Amino acid sequence: MMAVTWLETVRGRWAALAARHPWLYWVEKWGISAGSLALGVLTLFVFRRGIEYFPWFVGYLLLLWLAGVAFAEVRQSLAAQGRRLISLVVDYTVQTLFHGLLLFLLPIYYSSTTLTSANVWFLVALAGAALVTAIDPWYRAIIIRFHWIEIPLFGFGLFASLNVAFPLVRVPSTWALLLSGLVSVLALAPIFRRGADASWSGALVRAGLWGVAVALLLWSLRGWIPPVPLHLTRATFARSVIRLEPSQPVSSLPVDELRTWGGVAAFSAVAAPAGLQEPIYHLWRKDGTVLAKIPLSPIRGGRHGGFRTYSRKTDLGQNPAGSWTVDVITAHNQLIGRIRLVVTP
Q1: What are the φ/ψ torsions at residue 59 (nearest 5 degrees)?
Q2: How many Å apart are CA 336 and CA 334, to the nearest integer?
Q3: Are residues 236 and 220 in the same domain?
Q4: Burial grade of 246 (CB within 10 A; 0-12, 13-18, 19 or more)
Q5: Structure-derived torsion over alpha carbons of residues 85, 190, 219, 224, reported in degrees to the nearest 10
Q6: Among the listed residues 38, 57, 87, the one whose alpha carbon sits nearest the alpha carbon of residue 157
Q7: Are residues 154 and 216 located together in one domain of the fold?
Q8: Alpha helices in the chain (DSSP H)
Q9: Are residues 264 and 330 both part of a single domain?
């Protein structure tokens, strides 16, 4: 009770001060947003891609989940008791933690995204969520007008986080996708506990059913989701690959030169977490038409510079001129990266 009185006193003094200095209203409206955005940018620089900070990442994720779930439980009671200020402080805390988590994830997803493919839209959605949670007036306006969006947004953040975390403990990326969808919904079980007769068992059953539905939906949309944290460190077409290094790498060459080579190789180096083993493929296309799907040695994570592998094609057809691409994909067709070659007449 004393804490509430103290907070209300501080609020009253701030309102009186802002009445004398109108520019303080701008600070009140935009100051937290500016601070949150600055903190997020600092996060990007400090954590870079973030993989090496995995224990901190898991701890941060647990903190966000506990704060979010606890707030979901006490929000209604705080509002009923008229403790709007405490509710607002807790709300801002959860929002700031959530915003920091999204910015932490952005570089990781950016590394695994192929910008010319469908999985770029997941990166766009992640960046949009980070931007909205950074700018408080926008966030408040959206939550007030579309209050239902808060829960899916929080669940989206949990899913994006778990989708990175599971492969770091040696779960193959595609199965990590399913587990992340299921667990992210189960983590929201307190939200399914509503009404006077609601029980934890009922909430867990409802969350589990929704979790299975979300996992199945994600499975059908897996081509739209980057296979984090797998990403290409190097990739190129080349005349040949010698001792797992590309010889005469090219991005374009004339038909005559290609014919003298007698074929062309596609080299790729895939970064993966230590201990993770996962089969990958090279999917060859010419002018958009699939020519071959070549299985490669399963990647083994932890190698500095990425796990190196390649495939080679000697049957180039009667007219090799055109746009050649090789997609580096997982066993279940998630796109890790794309290699391009233009063969000129």
Answers
A1: -60, -40
A2: 6
A3: no
A4: buried
A5: 0
A6: 57
A7: yes
A8: 2-20, 23-47, 54-80, 84-112, 120-134, 136-145, 150-168, 173-186, 200-220, 255-261
A9: yes
Alpha-carbon distance of 68 to 183, in angstroms, equals: 15
Token pair listed for 244: 């797992």
Q: What is the CA radius of gyration of the chain?
A: 25
Is residue 45 located within the same domain as residue 146?
A: yes
Residue-level pLDDT at 328: 97
CATH code for the domain of 334: 2.60.40.1930
Cβ-based neighbours of 256, under 8 Å, separated by 6 or more: none
Structurally, how many domains does the chain consist of?
Answer: 2
Residue 92 makes CB contacts below 8 A (sequence gap 6+) with: 32, 136
Closest CA to 155 of 98, 235, 75, 233: 98
> Quick count: other Cβ atoms within 10 Å of Cβ 147?
9
- Give CA–CA dist 284/338, Å, rounded: 10
| Residues 208, 192 within the same domain | yes
**Of 182, 203, 224, at which residue does a domain stop?**
224
Among 224, 252, 273, give the residue marking a domain's end: 224
**Domain range for residue 186?**
2-224
Instruction: Read off the DSSP letter of residue 57.
Output: H
Please name which of 51, 131, 54, 45 lies closest in space to residue 95, comparing C-alpha atoms: 131
Give CA angle at 165 (163, 168), nearest 5°: 120
**pTM greater than the 0.85 cutoff:** no
Residues 285 and 311 reside in one and the same domain: yes
Averaged pLDDT, groups of 10, the chain, 345 residues long: 51 62 57 60 54 62 68 59 58 72 85 94 93 77 76 87 87 90 88 70 88 95 94 96 95 94 95 89 96 94 90 92 96 95 94
End-to-end CA distance of the chain: 81
**Residues 265 and 137 grouped into a single domain:** no
